[in-house]
Amino acid sequence: MKKTVYSLVLSEDVIEAVDRMAYSRGTSRSNLINQILAEAVGYVTPERRMAEILQTLSAQMTGLYQLQEQATDGILVIRSPLRYRYKPTIRYRVELYRQPEQSLGVLYASFRTQSKPLIEDATAFFRTWAALEQQHGACDPDDYQIEDGCWTRRFRITAGSSTASQEIGAAIGRYIKRVDAALKDYFAALPDHQQAKQAVLAYFSPT
Q1: Which of 7, 18, 53, 154 has the most Cβ atoms closer than 10 angstroms to its Cβ?
Q2: Residue 65 belongs to a domain with what CATH number?
Q3: Taking residues 142-150, what's their average pLDDT?
Q4: Which residues, other chains included, contact 184 with Cβ-Cβ below 8 Å and sequence gap of 6+?
């Protein structure tokens, strides 16, 4: 959204109140005034759209996962423990684009570990998941990036997809839950890698 400089004549008392509110929300005076005016005229700003999506996502994840608030708009970090001999935690990081065009945003998944076996097993899972998604037409090859136990998944905007913030947030939440459940089933089946792949395949079988 293009921004232009305008001059406004406001009372000092109003500015003081705006500054206090802006400080409490961790934003700037200009950004807060922009949000207030947008709400007054019924315009949904990119910041409000991202906030609504993440609020819906947070509501789905609360109580099931550990959520970590971020100072930057459009980012939510979700942590999930994994039953594994190193007792690691997988970190899902949702990052929304302020001005989405072909992509709404990206999902990052990673482990903070130096364990080579864990990195290898995580990489194998992500490759298995990506291959199955591609086979089922859920994504394109360039929607993924997998490297050393880290996974990046782009959320592509497709024709006919919902633009409602609540529906988008709910869809992202369902997707993360599905990936997380498949990941845990995969690791529970190890060291039998064939059985682990079959566990992931079950998430793509028609119900």
Answers
A1: 53
A2: 3.30.1460
A3: 89
A4: 82, 83
* 120 and 51 in a common domain: yes
Token pair recorded at residue 27? 């934003």
Question: Does residue 2 lie in a domain region?
Answer: no
Model pLDDT for residues 62-92, shown as the tens digit of each residue: 888 999 876 677 899 999 998 887 788 999 9
* Same-domain status, 36 and 111: no
For 157, the domain range is 46-204
Query: How far from chain centre, in Å, is Cα 59?
Result: 13
Cβ contact 144:152 at 8 Å: yes
The strand pairing partners of 90, in sequence order, are 80, 111
First to last CA, the chain: 43
119 plus 180 within the same structural domain? yes
Chain mean pLDDT for the chain: 86
Q: What is the residue type of 206?
A: P
- State the residue for tokens 């992509």: 103
Q: How far apart are CA 129 and CA 134, in angstroms?
A: 9
Contact in structure between 100 and 157 (CB atoms under 8 Å)? yes
Pair 147, 110 in one domain: yes
Query: CA angle, 126 as apex, 124 and 132 as ends, to 5°?
Result: 105
**Phi and psi dihedrals of 68, rounded to 5?**
-125, 115
